[in-house]
Design a protein that fits this description.
With about 450 residues, the chain is an all-alpha fold. It has helices spanning about 1-45, 55-75, 90-105, 110-135, 135-165, 190-200, 200-205, 215-230, 235-255, 260-280, 295-310, 320-325, 345-370, 380-400, 410-425, 430-450. The protein folds into two domains: about 1-85 and about 425-450; about 85-425, no CATH class. It is globular.
Length: about 450
Amino acid sequence: MKISSYVIVDTTKASQVRERERENVSTTVDSVLVVGLLVLLAFGVLAIGAVDEWSIFAFESGAGALFLVWAGKQFFSGGVRLSKNPVYLPALVFFVLILTQIALRTSAYSYVTKYEALQYVSFGIVLLIASECVSGEYARKQFALGLMVFGALYAFFALAQQLSPNGKIFWFYTPRFHGSIYGSYVNHDHYAGLMEMLVPIPLVISMGHLFSGGKRALVAFGAVLMASTIFLSGSRGGMIAFVLEIVLFAALTLVQKKNPRAALALVAVCLLVLAFLVFLGKGQVLGRLGDLGPGIRWEITKDSLRMFLHRPVWGWGLGTFPTVYPSYRSFYTNLFVNEAHNDYAQVLVETGLIGFALTLWFLITLYRHGMSNLRHWELKWEGAVSLAALLGCTGILFHSFVDFNMQIPANAALFYVLCALVTSELSSQSSRSRRTRVAKAEEIGEFSRGAD
């Protein structure tokens, strides 16, 4: 009896050691994946939004490498462990729709739809990695700090490039298509779309109690710098989307916490942004808000609705808008209309009512589950990052009514990452359950020694 009890104790200790070793390896791999995800997102932005063939291939290859690392971790841990993220299901069903378009040959250009399907897989991978690996308090803090540092440095670069322009990106790269260059984007609206998603992170953190003193002031300055470049870029959709984020943040603060201090702080941030614009002599950019005529975008939207009516169920095929649109264009232009300038209209055209319904399912799930993860955002990184991600999603989704940010791979990838941060399960629960299992094992060992 004594021998068997000691065997049980030794076995229990050995299992505890193996459990701790697996947890240490898992934590290390998760850290590598978090850093890899940050690098991949930064690469997409700096590689002209990842819109060229070489950058798209590199981005998809990077996403594939991250997936292999994650899959290897699952294999060596002895089983696949997936969190119960509610957006997984609508995202997966949308992918099934794309495969159905290819299999049933309902796409107007099957090759392009296959090409877009591969890109969608890369978005699914970043959604998966963000949901599974950026879920703990420490991981979220490091990830948020990484995005803040990148956003502030990138905004500073964009500002420096604007103050000393030569018509090239990075002062040496000439894009294939001319446009209103800002930062590393050919289109200033897409730069604004990126900043709409990034600026809520330092904004929310500077309004909470996660930092104090000089660190808090530095984070607030980063938010002011990043927000100012949205206005300096001249993107009207970006300006309005940022104002919407401020209003939503203030409303959530007043409704949930009934704390006017944070609302007043937001007003102060807006005043600092305005003062920064005046200091740079760019106060006239606000005049662009007075020119909000629909212009060509409304004509493209109306043409898109006519396209939809010809294939209302399955759509024309993912990625086929620029191929099909010339036959439906109702106005003269010497420009190539490559996108609908309205992401919702483009989803409707390319994937029909089925795809549009799946998109609504995804967005409803995003907000329904996201609103429950905003507790204690002033004191906890998990809540702060969730709130910032939700504000960023709201800004870009509003901007999508008048632009095509979701057709830019770098911006679309960041959007899916933010969606994962909003809806993912927080790993503190799983950590508590692991601690409970270890405690039970120790209790069994103590019981065995007591029986002896």
